[in-house]
Amino acid sequence: MRQNTHKSTCISSVFYVILMDKTLKNHTNEVKMANLTITLDDEDKKGIADFCEKVGMTISGLYNVFTKQVLREGKIPFEIGIDRPNSETIKAMKEGDKLIEKYRKNPSKVKTYTLNEAIQEMKLW
């Protein structure tokens, strides 16, 4: 669990997780519901809501799928992910954007390399 080093407003959200307890009682399935309270900081809640929207799920559905899989397999058995660059890649992309903008403003002030020059320069790193 991540600990914040700064004060942040924590929120407590209640997610209704349907736990399917399929027991035959008079030839019908009985569905029992339980409340699950999860405390997240604001940024994490927004992040999980954005993720669920991108993969077409609700937050409740996400936790329901997760719970059923963990109970069935006795471990965290799957990965659900979206392609996104890590923080180092994002930093490099921003630096690249700045260089492109600098080049567009004044091409003569930006050092350019041929492929062979670039390879030789990288060997020096």
Tell me what the structure shows.
The chain has 125 residues and is α+β, with helices and mostly antiparallel strands. The protein folds into two domains: 10-73, no CATH class; 87-123, no CATH class. Helix content is 46%, strand content 19%. It is built from four helices and four strands, in the order ββββαααα. A two-stranded antiparallel ribbon has the order 1-4. Strand 2 (24-25) and strand 3 form a beta hairpin. The longest helix has 19 residues, at 87-105. It starts with 9 loop residues before the first strand and ends with a helix. Mean pLDDT is 78; it is low at 1-26.
Largest sheet: 2 strands, antiparallel
Instruction: Report the count of strand segments.
Output: 4
Query: Unreliable segments (pLDDT under 50, ≥5 consecutive)?
Result: 1-26
Query: What's the helix-strand series?
Result: EEEEHHHH
Number of domains: 2
Rg, Cα atoms, Å: 25 Å
Overall, the morphology is elongated
Q: Helix segment count?
A: 4
Distance between the termini: 37 Å
Quote the beta fraction. 15-25%
Derived from helix and strand composition plus strand pairing, the structural class reads alpha+beta
Largest sheet: spatial strand order:
1-4
In helices, the fraction of residues equals 40-55%
SSE arrangement:
Layout: E1 10-19, E2 24-25, E3 28-29, E4 32-41, H1 42-55, H2 59-73, H3 87-105, H4 115-123
Give a quick summary of the entry.
The protein has 125 residues and is of the alpha+beta class. 46% of the residues lie in helices and 19% in strands.
Please supply descriptive tags for the structure shown above.
disordered N terminus; two-stranded antiparallel sheet; single chain; 2 domains; alpha+beta
